[in-house]
Amino acid sequence: MTNTVVTYGYWEELEAVPSLGHYSMSLDAHHLVQFWRRCSLSSNFWSRYMALWVPTPPAPGHLRREAMEHLLSYLLNELFENCAKFSGGPFQRINYAAWIQAEGMVFELTNQIVPAAQAPFATLIEELLTSDLDELYFQRLEASAESNASGSGLGYLTLMKDYGIRFGFRFSPLTSESITVGVQAHVALKEL
Amino acid sequence: MTIAHIQGEEYTIEYEPSSHTVAFRGTVRLQSSDEYAPITELLQTAHSEANTTGQLTLDFRQLQFLNSSGISMISKFVISGRKQDRVPLRVMGNQEIYWQQKSLANLQKLWPKVVIEIL
Ligand SMILES: Nc1ncnc2c1ncn2[C@@H]1O[C@H](COP(=O)(O)OP(=O)(O)OP(=O)(O)O)[C@@H](O)[C@H]1O
Ligand SMILES: [Mg+2]
Questions:
Q1: Domains observed in chain B
Q2: Could you tell me the pTM of the whole model?
């Protein structure tokens, strides 16, 4: 086990950054798995809530409120689903946090994994952050069509490639049996 | 008889053999590729029943949400269609539904014979 915190990609210390509003919620991963629609329900609630920060009409060049609501719902559903699917080890807590800033919104979801799951996830993250996204996207799909593998691995890719969302990832050791995974999604108010 | 209808809690998927159309409605955010298997099966049935001189239509105009696992399922279906190269595919989308604006064009990149109509 390592005792160090490792960070990848676009990670911000949000407590230190001025924000117009901050929200949070805490959930149990088992409960999302138990009723899968809770992922969708939570994402729809927060997407509608957060999209109200976008004025109508929006500032020039910014996404319209309905488009933002849609985008956030897709994004948050992917993030809640990942927390539900990939939580492991003795702790099953999921934390949702959101910040509204002048130029964008930031969402941070945390869940726990077993230490052995860190390295494969980190490899995947490095691939996501260094590859040509278009190439990786089609390569993944062709490969999974061949292999009939179960996991599709398109979540972060679609969010980065099609929506221009920037991601940060953080692994923080919690105990010898548990590591906290933080995923930050940075959404610009500007239409990309 | 072929299964022509899948009814979920928040969605319906309907296959209309006479027009060779599969229409998706609602929110499709299933948990795993296993849960997507019946939908793939329905699509494959529709594909095998389409005339080689005609086309198969996927109608997404009332599909509000699809998660990435669902996008993967549809994409794999397009790839299998390309490999068989038996029937061209037409995809109908809705300009008002943001994910379709953003992601439907990817299907055409998988197979240039996919015609996308976003209304
Ligand atoms: N919150 C998380 N905790 C632990 N591992 C994660 C987490 N999020 C993602 N991963 C790992 O990263 C991989 C890629 O995630 P991604 O969301 O892109 O694809 P997926 O969930 O496998 O499939 P899809 O999202 O297309 O249904 C996952 O398969 C998983 O191994
Ligand atoms: Mg995922």
A1: 5-118 (3.30.750.24)
A2: 0.97
Distance CA A119, CA A186 (A): 24
Contact A40 B10 (CB under 8 A): yes
Convert the pLDDT of each residue in A44-56 to its tens digit.
Answer: 999 999 999 999 9
Q: Pocket around ligand 1: residues whose beta carbon is below 6 Å from it?
A: A 78, 82-83, 86, 111, 113, 121, 124, 151-157, 181, 183; B 68-69, 72
* Interchain CB distance below 8 Å, A158 and B68: yes
ipTM above 0.90, yes or no: yes
Cβ-Cβ contacts under 8 Å, A71 against chain B: 98
Kindly tell me if the per-residue pLDDT of A63 is higher than 90. yes
Q: Give bridge partners of residue B12 from the DSSP assignment.
A: B7, B25
- Structural domains counted in chain A: 1
Beginning with the edge strand found earlier in the chain, give each strand of the sheet holding A6-9 in spatial order: A6-9, A166-175, A178-188, A104-113, A93-100, A21-28
